[in-house]
Predict the 3D structure of the following.
Amino acid sequence: MTNSKQKWGGCVGDYTLSYKDVEQAQTRLRMVAHRTPLSLSRTFSDRTGAAIYLKMENMQKTGAFKIRGAFNKIAALSSRQRAKGVITASAGNHAQGVALAAQHFGIPATVVMPARAPESKVSATQGYGAQVVLTGDNYDEAYVAALALSLQQGSTFVHAFDDPDVIAGQGTIGMEIMEDLPTVEDIVVPVGGGGLISGIALAVKQLWPHVRVIGVQPAGSDAAYRSWHSGSLQHIEHPHSVADGLSVKTPGQLTFAMMRKFVDDFVLVSDKEIEQTMCLMLERSKVLTEGAGAAALAALLSERLHLQGHRVAVVVSGGNVDLTRVSGLTAQFAGVK
């Protein structure tokens, strides 16, 4: 159980999260989200000396894990709150997760994106029925605009990671891993703002405290890594990484508290290691993944983690990547062993 005061996304208060919250989220998601495979990879097991099981959230609806948290958040709202709609700020997977969840409930959704957001992401989000507002030069400016619109409209802001219901939704991944592989010893998770690893760690540590939960972050976007190691929230003004889904200036207050309590270790990987892993996953396992989705496995392949002889679950968080980007990477790393 964890308790922390949250002051993000229009929510202020003391929140206590426990395994029961994740169980409730699992019930809500049962007929909505896919139960994604946890697949043993002989190729990557041989390369690392560990038994590597890939949790394939790249096969989730919308192509990433975000639907879990977004749907659970919206499902937890009262009918009056849902009637007023939801709003979020995102130019990535969270935008599509919120849009699809809102579509399921038949409620209005607004997604605020930076003015120069890729047209492919704008159209994908609109395809799920959301209204897209383009404003600001970056995510942070879009975030401020979304909070202002939320207050004006009376709609509920759905934070991408620093929200108890969102965290509980992401925690269902941890439950599935433990149900499918009760003998797992380590779970390796990519980290941006910390919602995914906080939820997984919450679910796992409540009943299986011996299982190690390990975070992985890009070296150029390491606010959560710095925060976890220093014991205080750290801020990065200009995070940068090929794993754009992990490029966050600072983790949330709630997620920071949970990571400090539940996460066992935290390592960094380089962009080159992430890109090489993306290519290896496509070439050797026929798995298409985005940079964020490849980060956790990159930590093992690059020997940032030494887990030889262990049973290891590796979270492949998403697969939404521009195919022209993949083409460039495969040419760059052709022949890499």
Summary: The chain has two domains: 2-64+163-332, 85-154. The first helix runs from residue 19 to 29. The mean pLDDT is 91.
